[in-house]
Amino acid sequence: MTRTSDSVPLTGISRRTFCKGAAVLGVWGGLASFGLAGCAPHTRAEELADSAPWKAGTYTTEVTGHNAPYTMTVTFSDDAITAIDTSANQESLGVGADALKALQQQAIDNQTINIDAVTGATLSSLSLQTGLEDCAKQAQAFEVLSEAPVPEKPAVEEVYDADVCVVGGGGSGLAAAVAAVQAGASVIVLEKCGITGGSTNVSEGALNAVDPERQEPQGIEDSIPTFYETTMKGGHNTNNPELVHFLTDNALDSVHWLESLGVEFKDEIGSATGSLGQRSHYPATPSGNTYIRSFQQFIDDNADAIMLLNDMQAKELILDDAGAVVGVKALYDGEQEVTVNCGAVVIATGGFGANVEYRQSVNDGVWKEVVLDETIGCTNIKPCAQGEGMVLAENAGAELICLSDIQLHPCGTPGTGLMEDIRTSGRNRIFVNTDGKRFVNEGAERDVLCKNIFAQPDGTYWVVVNTLRYPDPDEPDANGATINNMLALGHIVTGDTVEALAEAIGAPELVTTLEEYNGYCAAGKDEQFYKPACFLQPVAEGPFYAMQYEPSAWVTIGGIRTNDRLQAIDDAGIAIPGLYVAGADNGTLMSAPYCDYEGFSLMCAYSGGRMAGMYAAEAVA
């Protein structure tokens, strides 16, 4: 069972009797809709006073989180937990790091070591549970604390009212919610996980747009027509031209809109893996969680107009007699039935990339020769990409299209499929097979990369980088991990010399491969796979690092069919009143599984999300 953290009721909200004094829920306080004081904790002072005194002091333990091991401390008085410190953790922002913050506060407020895992951050939650138990034993407090009850879940209302209900609290859903509020609507967001932000939290945050102000100082020649043409080329000209024009023409507007919400981008433009050009914008602060933090701040600042409910699984769309969508039925914490009455619904649940059974059942397209079973991981957080939004829409009459258009990412971690540890984008890296030989232009399209990887022994490869990429082994990268963390977990291999690394990974040809590659870099021409000169950077000085990767399910392109106002439509092309679609659930917006999608998918999420939110708000105005 999962649950949210305690929070107090929010009262006095107007706008269509918005939420009727409902509780604002979230996994932790101080962020987004969670920026409120917690409920008065359930004191156990009377119970603890009767127990034998504990060994007061601060106790230390080593635990293993999702990303890396870390040291945590717990401080006890002779009858209470007084402090918990997990600040040394390297968990992902918006996911494990925030779950730890919430759960340690729950443990202190409720004087318990029995805490429920946060959906979407299970391993991080379990690391805290393990550490609490170990420190409690050291303080001779385990017997009493282990008998303490799990904190009660906060109460929710049975019925809520708003202008717009957004199903899904990831990047596209929050973009839709913010845009709807900006257009004058009251909004409720239903998020089934205990975390907010979904898989956007663990993305690298690349967002593609033509941006002369940033590109020209770097000598990058680009234009919107070029962006359009490369996107169509990347999609083998099977993309929807009108929608590609819409997205490429409006990408920079989305950058500026995000900046207006507080997002800061680096001045330097990059090129993410699979991006056909140098137009990838990266947040100045770590990863895709940057966007989520800005959305959360907007929600916090506009609490009279927007509410986010975590642990809230949408189960059914409510239709009136004319077939219009007028609400959502949901289940809170797997138990309590909740109804949201509204004038319009935006579906934004993140596609179905992590739903193994379903994705293989529709896999009769570009990847039909590959079995997309449990051996193929997923770059999304597993609970966040199960396809529920598509089921909701289909049951309301919407048509599903292009379901076999599943995009694979070449840089999945074996076992999980997540894009973890060594960063795979950029110039200073090469891809080699298990013999140590290059086999592809590392900057090629996604489908080209993946097909070449599948053709290698065991369908896997090594990404090789060096000290130029990671000059300080203790400096956290954009996702919060360090080289020494990665080594401690056994995720990567290192060697002070190329020869040592080649021996460590059992790749005898690596020495010759790097000599040849560095020669191409010096000459400014890749004679083997013709990587563009602007992406040639030597991998010459040690220490060297290598990590094994394999293709992973990344994003599902197919989904709910929509019109040009992002309204869900049926198989006759007739719009379903009150139903809009954003992000990976939209089967019309992106189209084609080969497209220039590294940096393109987030652009679709934000351009499409804000347009869906705006149109939904207009519909109920």
In short, what is this structure?
The protein is of the alpha+beta class and 621 residues long. Helix content is 28%, strand content 18%.
What layout of secondary structure does this protein have?
Blueprint: H1 45-49, E1 57-64, E2 69-76, E3 81-85, H2 96-110, H3 122-138, H4 142-145, E4 159-161, E5 164-167, H5 171-182, E6 187-190, E7 207-208, H6 212-215, H7 224-234, H8 241-260, E8 280-281, H9 289-301, E9 306-309, E10 312-319, E11 325-332, E12 336-341, E13 344-347, H10 356-361, H11 388-395, E14 400-401, E15 406-412, E16 430-432, H12 446-454, E17 461-466, H13 483-488, E18 493-495, H14 498-505, H15 510-523, E19 544-556, E20 559-560, E21 567-569, E22 575-581, H16 600-620
Parallel strand pairs: 4-12, 5-6, 5-13, 6-9, 13-22
Antiparallel strand pairs: 1-2, 2-3, 7-8, 10-11, 11-12, 14-20, 15-19, 16-17, 17-19, 18-19, 21-22
Helix pairs in contact: 2-3, 5-9, 5-16, 7-8, 8-16
